[in-house]
Amino acid sequence: xxxxxxxxxxxxxxxxxxxxxxxxxxxxxxxxxxxxxxxxxxxxxxxxxxxxxxxxxxxxxxxxxxxxxxxxxxxxxxxxxxxxxxxxxxxxxxxxxxxxxxxxxxxxxxxxxxxxxxxxxxxxxxxxxxxxxxxxxxxxxxxxxxxxxxxxx
Length: 153
Fold this sequence. Notes:
Strands 3-2-1-4-5 form a five-stranded mixed beta sheet, covered by helices on one side. It contains two helices and eight strands, in the order E-E-E-H-E-H-E-E-E-E. It is globular. It is of the alpha/beta class. The protein has one domain: 2-Layer Sandwich (Nucleotidyltransferase, domain 5).
């Protein structure tokens, strides 16, 4: 009988990060520098054979509009087809609230609970990290992408 796990996906920058969680603890990490549209079907083909996925989680923005869109459409489709709940959290949760590159010298920043853009002379490198433990209270059942921030390609 396959292990019951939760899967967390961060596709906003390269590398794509996929965390596999058992009893809320990170047990496996998958990293890929490939395009999410190419690699997500392959990753999940393997995961669905190996595990019984209970919940899906992802970073729903801000970041690359296309990366967010691909992740959302893929995960939402999987959620509907396999009847797996989908949850989301803004990307700042996964990078210690550091600026996230938007376009040019603009970065997304989160001040209190508001996300906006700010211009930086030197754009900081954004690194995302999978949490060692999943805290369900930190995620929302409203898993729609953060498109209201503005499309950034």
